[in-house]
Amino acid sequence: MQTGSSTPAFSEAPKEPLQPRRIAVFGSTGSIGTQTLDVIRDNPNLFVASILTAHSNAKLLIEQAILHRPHTVVIVEEQGYADVREALQPLGIAVLSGAAALEEAAGHPGYDLMLAAIVGFAGLKPTLQAITTRRPIALANKETLVVAGDIVMQRAVEGRVPIIPVDSEHSAIFQCLVGETYNRIEKIILTASGGPFFGKKPNFLVNVRKEHALQHPNWNMGAKITIDSATLMNKGLEMIEARWLFNLEPSRIQVVIHPQSIIHSMVQFEDGSIKAQMGLPDMKLPIQYALAYPQRIPNRFPRFDFKRSSTLNFEPPDIRTFQNLALASEAMFKGGNAPAVLNAANEIAVFGFLRNRLGFLDMTDMIERTMAHVPYIEQPTLDDYFESDGEARNFAASLMNM
Ligand code: NDP
Ligand code: MG
Prior knowledge:
402 residues; alpha/beta; Rossmann fold; Rna Polymerase Sigma Factor, Chain: A; 7-stranded parallel beta sheet; 11 strands; 14% strand; globular; disordered N terminus; binds NADPH dihydro-nicotinamide-adenine-dinucleotide phosphate; binds magnesium ion
């Protein structure tokens, strides 16, 4: 029997010093990408940025590369290629451009972890390439799992490639599951802030302009996800993301509105016990967790203070008003290519709304009509997913004469 007061109540193996990790930041010029580079800059002994990619923002990509000195950068749009090459080649940085450049970079052996923060369907191919290259993925790009979650996860499992979520809700669930390998999940509870139009009704939403919708109360994010948060489509995409990430039956996934965004999500186990992960809403936290996993590293981010704010509210989502959430749930239960079609129609709808071509409630209508139009495929191949995506995009665009 052990005696003595020095025996800790809870003992852990001492922390191993982390080997510096080479991070490939896909979508480095976006909201998640720039915050990732902040985390890397704040931890120079732990992380280095070795690949950076942008779509068209050559100016910011150049600034980032001068600061971080990656070995490779990608500027997808060829318009920006000459400027980026002129600025970075003299520094010994390889500059790639064009449609296939993202996959080429994802196949490069010179990185240890991909931070997948491209927005939308465009993130799928490079992420699949990282799995083929057997590189762990810190996944922010939820659309990858919404479109082809079954294939992505199957390939990751077969290749033993860890996928660590960056999306705050999924990071919360992932953190709640540490140490619970053999325990069954009864359900997961995804929290949603409710977005800027929480409590509003259709007669208000019909007049909403993009300037209103782009003002999120708790999170500062890229334009597409901010609109998705306002329509609650973001939570619908997150249900599908969670389904694949945690291998759950759709019926085990619940959404609850929690306007303060302090509880980032919860897991309920089969004994009824519920674990929650909490903290102030700051994406740098799940980003840092994913980069350093399985370790936690210190930081100076502000802390939640129980002495200051004491009220946490919860209520069910209003799916009669926010019908995108109902549509996403329907797609999740239907399975097959339905989520891919939903996602493509939503990307076009958000694009149209951001260009004032579509009203706020028209987005739902466009998604619903596209889902009714594109033929259902029960067990799609990867090619089927790409075809369904293209078909849905074309049909949705035709609805607003794009
Ligand atoms: P942003 O719009 O801020 O950034 C998107 C990034 O992807 C930019 O680097 C952009 O390059 C690049 N990009 C855009 N289109 C393409 C394309 N067709 N091909 C290649 N690269 C492209 O998005 P966010 O950072 O907000 O979101 C990124 C992902 O993370 C999304 O899937 C989102 O759902 C998810 N996420 C985001 C959160 C957030 O807080 N922002 C929270 C949780 C998840 P360029 O700048 O040159 O256009
Ligand atoms: Mg989220």
